[in-house]
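Me: Here is a favour to ask of a fellow structure person. Could you put it straight underneath, so I can go through it closely?

Assistant:
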Amino acid sequence: MDDNSGSGMLAVREQWQLAVGRFLLSFGEVESVISSLIVDLPSERIFESVGFSRLSSRIRLVRQILSQRGLPDELVSRLDAVLAEVSSLSKDRNVVAHNPLYWSFFDSAGNAKVEINIFPFLKPEKRISLARLQTLGAMADSLSERIHILYGEVSDALAG
């Protein structure tokens, strides 16, 4: 941040806002498809009882149902791989969704240094930088695209 007027800080803050929004919106799309799978896969209506459970529980349920529906093994394997990525990415999603943006103006030696991260206050080792957040957003975008395609393939296989 080169300027001392505060506009540099506002520009950096806006970058964070865009990156957080991109990541959370894309991850939300992924969660939406997982919920749709829970609605569409079983022969019974179970979404009402599990639709608001933890994401890890919903992923586990989708995996169990997929294994029992007679879908092509290759399709189940591809969807399972994407679900594994979702599960892994959910840890970062929770850090981003439930923690504030911290601005640090000094390093541990007391030297002036601006550092901005999102992290749980008591777990600074989980810090997420803007660059990492932008990477997470791209990963969530990719997951969203792939899981939507797979959802279409699963729907077609079940209908066909």
